[in-house]
Every structure is written in C-alpha cells, then in structure tokens.
Amino acid sequence: VRDIQKTLRFARWHNMRISVLSTGHHMDVRNIADNAVHIVMSNFNEKTLIDAGDDKHIQVGPGQTFGEITDFVQEETYGEWVIATGADSTVGPYGWSTGGGHGYLSRKYGLGADH
C-alpha cells in the first residue's frame, strides 16, 4: 500500500495521469494511458471467505481473477457455494462488473451490474 501511496504522490507532484490494471485481461489496451503512471494491482491478491449465518460473501483484492476466486471458493466450501463470474477465468470482479457483468448465470439471474 505504501508503494501505491508514493506512486500517487509522485504522479500528482509531476502532474501525470494514472492508469490502473487489475488482472491483466484487456482486449484493446484502453486501460493504459499514454505518458502516465501505470499501476498494476496483480500483487493485491488476498481473498477471505465470510460465512456468518445469512451473511455469506467473499472479499477479494483487485488482482484476483475469477479462476483463482472460483478455485478458492470450491476448496473452502467443498463445492457448496456457487458464485456469479464472467465466462472467462482471466477476468476479475472489477472488469466483469464495469463491463456489465456477463457470465454463465446471466440468463437466469441477470447481469452482474444489475445486482
């Protein structure tokens, strides 16, 4: 986190734009700005499963892909949980949700952006 803070201060001090890459899945490189400081979030890959009665969810870092998240959930819940994900395992929650949230369960439950 300190590295990110230093990077943001540097960019602000030098009046530079910032671009961020979450998981590395991008088709047309729109997330990379020219003449900018580029922050790659792949090392922010923590994940925690929260199972508190009716409150069941997963907290993940911005560097996690749905492939990694799905494997983690299957291992931790012994296959009892199903999560809505993108159709491509290299996509992460940020890209999936900002891209509308298309995935295998979209026809039954709607797009991820609707929830």
Keywords:
single chain; 115 residues; 4 helices; 30% helix; two-stranded antiparallel sheet; two-stranded parallel ribbon; alpha+beta
Question: What's the story with the biggest beta sheet?
Answer: 2 strands, parallel
Give the helix level as a range of percent: 25-40%
What order do the SSEs take from the amino end to the carboxyl end, as H and E? Answer: HEEEEHHH
- Shape, principal axes of CA atoms: globular
Uncertain spans, ≥5 residues at pLDDT below 50? Answer: none
Counting H and I runs of at least 4 residues, what is the number of helices? 4
Q: Using only CA atoms, what is the Rg? A: 16 Å
In spatial order, strands of the major sheet run 1-2
As a percent range, the share of strand residues is 15-25%
Average predicted confidence as pLDDT: 85
Helix/strand-derived category reads alpha+beta
Please report the total strand number as a whole number. Answer: 4
Secondary structure layout plus pairing:
Blueprint: H1 2-13, E1 17-21, E2 36-40, E3 47-52, E4 55-60, H2 66-77, H3 93-98, H4 106-109
Parallel strand pairs: 1-2
Antiparallel strand pairs: 3-4
Write a brief structural summary.
The chain is 30% helix and 19% strand. With 115 residues, the protein is an alpha+beta fold.
